Amino acid sequence: xxxxxxxxxxxxxxxxxxxxxxxxxxxxxxxxxxxxxxxxxxxxxxxxxxxxxxxxxxxxxxxxxxxxxxxxxxxxxxxxxxxxxxxxxxxxxxxxxxxxxxxxxxxxxxxxxxxxxxxxxxxxxxxxxxxxxxxxxxxxxxxxxxxxxxxxxxxxxxxxxxxxxxxxxxxxxxxxxxxxxxxxxxxxxxxxxxxxxxxxxxxxxxxxxxxxxxxxxxxxxxxxxxxxxxxxxxxxxxxxxxxxxxxxxxxxxxxxxxxxxxxxxxxxxxxxxxxxxxxxxxxxxxxxxxxxxxxxxxxxxxxxxxxxxxxxxxx
Length: 315
Hints:
By secondary structure, this protein is of the alpha/beta class.
């Protein structure tokens, strides 16, 4: 990663010139590829800062013996907020990505479990961005193990208590997720994306087909989904079991659908419309306590969220 960053910045003038020519010849006079390259440079810079500061934070934590102390978590959370906030600012400046939030007051207080929709590569950091204005909290997520290939992400988020899971290791993954929940307190937030992967119409069709085979009644109840994948309750149940006192926050958003991939982002930047985000909080005492009841509650929340998204996409 350090080598990639150095190479990218050294070759930046040449790469930028080539991208300007490519965009111009393609008739994209707003230079979307050049804008995306600027975001890539910012990401590489942030990752490099995280890598270089991690050994210093390790030393400050007593040679790694106190990484889970309040002071160490606070230092790592400060670096996380800096990285997310500066990348968000650069994304707004270069890509026109603007976020409008409704219900922001529901974020406070902790501990809470955040259930977030997942429709684009850009929305993965949305919960952490929402909490960046509340520096008293650290954000821990359930993250796919593929992200371990990013060393800065691995070091920073791993030390903050996030867990990296493999989709194919169900029991092991649920154990790790439950442990994350057990570590939540009034200074921390746990995040999970119940859909388990990015939305796309083909994935929705496959998910409903699999669900029809394993649980026909549940599949029938979710057949009207249009914009969200059926939620996978295993991870949510494990997180709730690990944090029995935590309230639940559901984060829905509309607007990321047009940019599910980097290729789509390169075609659409800068974006013309804003991203709408809706936040709803559920008191834990109002939630069912049994697994079937929680699954049914989650399905109903997802169906309402699907309707919320549909209304905004068709407004």
